[in-house]
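Batch manifest line 259
LIGAND: calcium ion
JOB: complex structure
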Amino acid sequence: MKILLSPSIVPLFSISLFQLTATMWGQLTPQTPSKEFIRIGGRIIAVEVRASSDTTPPVITVGPSAGSITSSGATINWTTDEASNTQVEYRQPPGSGNWNPVPATPNPAMVTSHSQALTGLQPNQVVEYRAKSADAAGNTVTSGILQFTTLPDTTLPVITVGPSAGSITSSGATITWTTDEASNTQVEYRQPPGSGNWNAVPSTPNPAMVTSHSQALTGLQPNQVAEYRAKSADAAGNTVTSGIQQFTTLADTTPPSSP
Ligand SMILES: [Ca+2]
Ligand SMILES: [Ca+2]
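JOB STATUS: finished
ARTIFACT:
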């Protein structure tokens, strides 16, 4: 009995009819043409491994193009003239560092209609990308480099925890809250509630883009209610303002210093 095999993954299917074990399969993966003898069920079988006759890379006949573009993602689609695997490489912005391959290893499904989603992109910024497909023999086509621009971020941050006042003393407190996306930090307060204009701390928002926010208030009057609200803006300027909260400073128990 003689089985003709190519070094590609195709022979795995052909000989699986004989219930090869993983070890047997390991014996059947030479990268160069050769003849092997294997024992299956008490029978000695001669196996000839042939070099693949396919030396032609796939041809991209349609695309690639970017669809379903959002502020953080898109889907890249293309068509090849023969069954091949799927991978997209992208950089944002163009020319920035190394290409990011998605998936990290190509999707092994051998198809002619390719679709790969990109996620986690920055909003309102150009992305460059290229599509790659390899046939079963490993011949790879890489498309030219194309671009698209993600949509602007129009979604306000959401405050998921807080705000709440902690570390309360007779003259201050620390306001903390959490947002669902990176955003800046500012607290507005009045003491007592309803008195005059809001005091913004800091006067311009702390520009650090974070999801865990903390802002100290100082110089408050002792033993008096303060009202406050938290504000956070994302990089696109979408600003969330919390509801109004209150806390009461502690009584002043420190005697005046005497000479
Ligand atoms: Ca081919
Ligand atoms: Ca946003």
